[in-house]
Amino acid sequence: MKNIVLVGFMGSGKSSTGRRLARKLGYDFIDTDYAIEEVTGLTVEQIFAKHGVKRFRGEEALLVSKLADKENLVIATGGGLVLNPQNIEKLKANGIFILLKASPETICKRVKNKRTRPLLARGNLKHKVTKLLEDRQDAYQMADYSVNTDHLDPDTIVHIIYQYLLERGVIVRNH
Ligand code: S3P
């Protein structure tokens, strides 16, 4: 079965939703940030600090190449992974893209994990989030389906995605 690829900005709920969705579907769960930390032996923060954003994007691209021909995965992507069109192309070959959306206000409340989010570590958080969100609007347009997560808890988001996947025939009901 096709992979389910969760895309969206930092704090949109990709990891919390993805873990639950994978459990519901009986799929393996991959969080690209954690997979990169495992492969490199460095935290995301350390990769950015020691080697820069380019190296991190390189690690993302390498990981995508490894994941693209796999099946039955729920993949929670880092918020910038879709900025590379090749990543989209590779994951689309066997994946359905679900965009999780959130307002700048919601994002600012949710992005507490500094270790995996060096891009938001310094400066005015609201300004940074608003600017980056604007810059990325186009990259997020390729999603097959989107859910606004502002007022939804992870279980409700999972339910909505699950219904969509059933309707699209991407999955069959397992109970
Ligand atoms: C990034 C998002 C982060 C992480 C890295 C870069 C981005 O992942 O990959 O800090 O460019 O938006 P989350 O979206 O899981 O926070």
Furnish the topology, listing elements before pairings.
Blueprint: E1 3-8, H1 14-25, E2 28-31, H2 32-40, H3 44-51, H4 53-67, E3 73-76, H5 85-92, E4 95-101, H6 104-110, H7 125-136, E5 145-148, H8 154-168
Parallel strand pairs: 1-3, 1-4, 2-3, 4-5
Helix pairs in contact: 1-8, 2-4, 3-4, 4-5, 6-7
Bound molecules: shikimate-3-phosphate.
Shikimate-3-phosphate binds at residues 10, 14, 33, 44, 78-80, 116-119.
Description:
This protein is α/β, with parallel strands linked by helices and 175 residues long. Helix content is 49%, strand content 14%. The chain contains eight helices and five strands, in the order E-H-E-H-H-H-E-H-E-H-H-E-H. The chain has helices at 14-25, 32-40, 44-51, 53-67, 85-92, 104-110, 125-136, 154-168; strands at 3-8, 28-31, 73-76, 95-101, 145-148. It has a five-stranded parallel beta sheet with strand order 2-3-1-4-5. Helix 1 packs across helix 8 and helix 3 packs across helix 4 (53-67). It is globular and about 45 Å long. The two termini are 17 Å apart. Bound molecules: shikimate-3-phosphate.
